[in-house]
Amino acid sequence: MLLDNDAFLTALTKLFDSTKQTGTVYVTFKTITHTEVKKKTKNKVEEQQCLVRATDGKSGNKKTKISTLLRAKDVNRFQMQYNTLMKAHMDGLNKKTKKRKMKV
Questions:
Q1: What is the rounded distance in angstroms from the CA atom of residue 83 to the CA atom of residue 66?
Q2: CA distance 48 to 46
């Protein structure tokens, strides 16, 4: 389902909360170029956009899919909010334990 940027971040927060104990959230970024033709001057203007998709990784009818389109001017604001969201929900990660080798 295509959402605006703020609604996408809200839905992503709910998606992270629903998969807190067990589960995975997949987030993908894909660049898109739309070509717009101005009627008066006939010049082509390419507008760079980014498609952001997120899913909970479940299969079947219970799978949750959300997406949003980012314009080039909104990327910095979105990225800052996304980074804050990611930092808040990465508390379930465990540090890797290193094994010490014995000197012979």
A1: 18
A2: 6
